[in-house]
Amino acid sequence: MKKVIYGLLIVALLLSGCAVLLGSKDTSTEVPVPSLPPMEEEAVQPDTEETQPETAEGEEPSGGGGAAEITETQVIGWMGSVSTTPDGAEYDDFVTLVYEGVGPFGIAGDDAEVEAQIVALRDHDEPGKYAHFWGSLACGVPDVNGCQMRVDKLRVDGPGDFFDPDIVDGWEGTIVGKGDMAQVDDAFVLAGDYPIEYGISSAPAMPDGDLVLDEIIAGLRDTGSKVSVWGEMTCGVPDAGGCQIQVTKLKANGEVHEIEPYEGMETGHTCGPENPQLPVADIEGMTQEDVAAWLMSAYLDHYLCPEIDDLSRLVDYQIEGTELQSRGDLQFTVMVTFSVQPVMGIDSNWIAGNGELDDPWIRDKMLFVTVELQDDVYVIGSMGTGP
């Protein structure tokens, strides 16, 4: 009896297995197929305007985060303004740069003095709203838009002392036209992640101070040609981005153009004090007009010196004439007519007062120079456009 029961159980198991196999075959189309995970798209360069939007008034730019790789970029004369974030925001301030598609970023000073200067710039109105910054930009850090500009020095835009020029050593970029800007015809745009714009011009060249590279620079505008430049850059001047590169060497389209920088006139005077002196013992045979012309020439020689800021520095000058206005043993006045060729042309400080524009010269300027005898030396006591 037991054998019969065991046999029946074996047959039942076999029939059950077949039913499972047949059911699996019949219902296979009803088994859901899991969807594949989406493929990761190839990384592309983000749209700067979308990832770094302009910040509306009262709105804090987005903060960075995560464990992104930290990158650093040198900051040389970048121009912008500093704003305060709203109350309760994660960060206290940020810098908005004047270049399209760059920033805003967080900002901090390298030391307490620079940080105090940054704080003083927050929400400042014109004049004094903008400044040029030097230092570094670190991205992939916890600050506004994931970046922080670390500033080691800054210069508020406007009158005042200038920093020594920055050395430009093979900077790469392109040259674009700036026809929409008054007094600015072109700009050098840095290659790389941050299209910073600087004004660009030929440095004065030997032997006559001509701007011989300007024609080549103009020919490269809006061509898209890759350009490498060498020279010096000064910030705080009326040009693109508030800076100007004076080019001594330029490489583009496989050609190299280089000049010998102009070193000023050989007048027999050395770069010295702004107020020159002429000893009485040295004036034998000179008229009072000659004394005034000598002092004026020495005075202008001072502005040929390389340490003078570009707004005031001269490439060349000419004394055109003198006319005695009043005579005296201890004091006399001479009208001196002269012409100057400023480094910055018509954008220089020399445009003030009188004179006729003859780019790059300012011709027939006139000053009444009062000469005084002090302790056996003649000095310029005063000068002005009226007697």
What features would you describe in this structure?
The protein is globular. It has five helices and 17 strands. The chain has three domains: 99 residues; 93 residues, OB fold (Dihydrolipoamide Acetyltransferase, E2P) (Beta Barrel); 108 residues, no CATH class. The chain is an alpha+beta fold. The longest helix has 25 residues. The N terminus is likely disordered. The chain is 16% helix and 37% strand. The strands form three sheets. Strands 12, 13, 14, 15, 16 and 17 form a six-stranded antiparallel sheet that branches. Strands 1-2-3-5-4 form a five-stranded mixed beta barrel. It has a five-stranded mixed β-barrel with strand order 6-7-8-10-9. A hairpin with a 2-residue loop joins strand 16 and strand 17.
Radius of gyration from the CA trace? 36 Å
Q: What percent of the residues sit in helical stretches (DSSP H or I)?
A: 10-25%
Total count of helical runs of at least 4 residues:
5
Spans where pLDDT lies below 50 across 5 or more residues: 1-59, 265-270
Please give the number of β-strands: 17
The ordered string of helix (H) and strand (E) elements is HHEEEHEEEEEHEEEEHEEEEE
Name the shape in a single word. globular
Distance between the termini: 146 Å
Major sheet, described briefly? 6 strands, antiparallel
Bin the strand percentage: 35-45%
Query: How many domains make up the coordinates?
Result: 3
**If you average the pLDDT, what whole number results?**
80
Secondary-structure content class? alpha+beta
Multimeric state: single chain
